[in-house]
User: What shape does this take?
Amino acid sequence: MLTLHTIADTRAQVRAWQASGLRVGFVPTMGNLHAGHIRLVTEARRHADKVVASIFVNPTQFGPGEDFDAYPRTLERDQARLADAGTDLLFAPAVDEMYPQQNLSWVDVDQLGEHLCGASRPGHFRGVSTVVSKLFHIVTPDVACFGEKDFQQLAVIRRMTRDLCFGIDIVGVATEREADGLAMSSRNGYLSPEERALAPQVYAHLQQARAAIEAGDTDYQGLSQRLTESLESAGFRVDYLDVVNAETVAPATPEDRALRVAVAARLGKTRLIDNIPVAIVRD
Ligand code: PAF
Assistant: This one.
């Protein structure tokens, strides 16, 4: 696996592959990789001849007081994992390479970023859309893979890719879970042993929500309130636990058929997010 740190070198390598007719798949990450990321690489491989991954902890998607400085930088270990998974090229730029001067140009996707994480992390999705656009312009992939764990991010990126005519296929990949149901995340490493023991409650509550909706509950606000209270009494601070339309990410109505129940909850200093799809089959 080739590791490149500059935009110019990365462009030159990808252009050479594409000029010889090869299809390029892309997996953007912030590093500290786990099995969920490796699954993205495996999926990209299925869709492409060459797989490019990036590792860049993007400052513009972190708010003041968030974990930008603490975010684990584990480049050597990540390189070994990516190489083992069959990645062809790793693009690992420094902050100055991606943001050589004050950034004045932003990509902002209206509406989809307003709810859920958008409400509790103002500016987060503007930072994500902007850096993913920059990475798309640098890597010019044919296909890019993103995890469904960040379901709202995936919706924002799909929409941005369509609205701005990137011409890139966006593939969503199912969430990889620990044996007890906890969604794999680079931030799980922040959990103390006691918090780690509680953390699977997040997915357990999502499963309860899905069971209730499948059994006919359409009082989504009431359901969300009950489950929020239950998580809070287990020791979490809940940013949101909402039933939303799977495509628009807006609060679900009883007419919607494709839903997601999404949650963000804090345990100590760790913010855990997760979501579950619910398809309603009713007359
Ligand atoms: O999901 C992530 O790791 C990041 O938000 C992404 C897509 C790499 C952009 O920085």
Summary: The first strand starts at residue 2 and ends at 4. Residues 186-275 form a domain with the Pantoate--beta-alanine Ligase; Chain: A,domain 2 fold (CATH 3.30.1300.10). Residues 28-30, 58, 61, 128, 131-132, 150, 153 surround pantoate (CB under 6 Å).
